[in-house]
Amino acid sequence: MRILVTGIAGFIGSSIARALLREGHAVRGVDNFSTGKRENLADLHAIELLEGDLNQPGVADAAVRGMEIVFHEAAIPSVPRSVKEPYLSFEANESATLRLLLAARDAGVKRVVYAASSSAYGNSETLPKVETMTPAPISPYAVAKLAGEYYMQCFSRTYGLETVSLRYFNVFGPFQDPASQYSGVLAVFINRMLSAEPIQIFGDGEQSRDFTYIDNVVSANLAVAFAPATEVSGRMFNVATGARVTLNKAFSLLAQITNYKLQPQYMPVRVGDVRHSLADISAASRAFSYKPLVNFEEGSKRTVAWYQSLKA
Predict the structure, then answer these.
(1) Are 71 and 113 in contact (CB under 8 A)?
(2) Per-residue DSSP letters for 163-178?
(3) Sign of the four-CA dihedral 267, 118, 78, 223
(4) Residue tagged active-site, from 141, 151, 168, 260
(5) How far apart are CA 269 and CA 201, in angstroms?
(6) What is the pLDDT of residues 101-156, one digit of tens each?
(7) By the 8 A CB rule, do 279 and 241 touch?
């Protein structure tokens, strides 16, 4: 099929594109390279690449032209950065999503699969997080990503465009950028451990996350993209493992894998961070037979091995 991946130079976008190419699809990508890395595309020789921002006039229209399915991964996926720059988060995560949906509707795209976020659940103490829970976002990033979900539902019900939202839970794995202060916590841990640098943990380390290895996210995207519309269109699903790990436990496991000897430095809690995150994944299991392929320990070993290969 003819498939567009927005944010194709990002960690998740490039991983989805890699899987689509393996399955023989024709893949077009669009990226403005504000957070995506050109090196993530080094092995994706078969893609058609458009460089541009979805908020720029004509970019979204050109990107979706002739496409059947869209994976919308383009975003600035950072809670701390959204707290610092809320309007930037709005433009990248909400405005661009609406522009893409309008272009997809007008171009006759069949289905849009949207990268939503577990941050929509906020700090609710109820665990696990179930799709029927009332959203309670506490960061500008979470608000923008939740608004994107609502736009997806609106375009499904109002315009007949098939849309699906996948709420990702703390995705990690190869190709995730560890260099930014806004990077995912595991990427930062591993990069610093391999360089024997000090590591900071914000809070007491007992906050927990449903860390989800990238292969699980890719498999969910591909499965839901081709699932019957009657089962998935206009809906939102959690994509995770259904298990949670504290940051202290994650630190200990990664330290063991990397032979890291330093102790973490505990810092004040960051504004906008949630305390606990754990997903109920039964809805995705029923609707499109989703199941986690790789658990946290195995995913950690694979991720460390990939980062080690970069330093070799």
Answers:
(1) yes
(2) EEEEEE-SEE-TT---
(3) positive
(4) 141
(5) 9
(6) 999 999 999 999 999 999 999 988 899 999 999 999 999 999 999 999 999 999 99
(7) yes
Measure the CA dihedral 55/33/177/94, to 10°. 0
What one-character-per-residue DSSP string does 64-100 give? HTT-SEEEE--S---HHHHHH-HHHHHIIIIIHHHHH
Indicate the domain borders of the chain. Answer: 2-172+213-242+278-294, 185-207+243-274+299-311
Is there a catalytic annotation at residue 141?
yes
Cis peptide before 228 (omega within 30 of 0): no
Which CATH class name applies to 2-172+213-242+278-294? Answer: alpha beta
Give yes or no on whether 2-172+213-242+278-294 and 185-207+243-274+299-311 have one common fold.
Answer: no
SS3 9: coil
Tokens, residue 260: 């890291």
Give which of 118, 184, 105, 113 is closest to 146, Cα–Cα: 118
* Tokens coding 302: 């694979």
Q: Which two tokens stand for residue 214?
A: 């990238």
Residue 121: DSSP 8-state: G
Alpha-carbon distance of 219 to 226, in angstroms, equals: 11
Kindly report, residue by residue over 76-113, the tens digit of the pLDDT: 988 889 999 999 999 999 999 999 999 999 999 999 99
Residue whose structure tokens are 């696990």: 128
CATH superfamily of 185-207+243-274+299-311: UDP-galactose 4-epimerase, domain 1 (3.90.25.10)
Q: Could you tell me the pTM of the whole model?
A: 0.95
Which of these, 20, 16, 303, 308, lies nearest to 183 by C-alpha position? 303
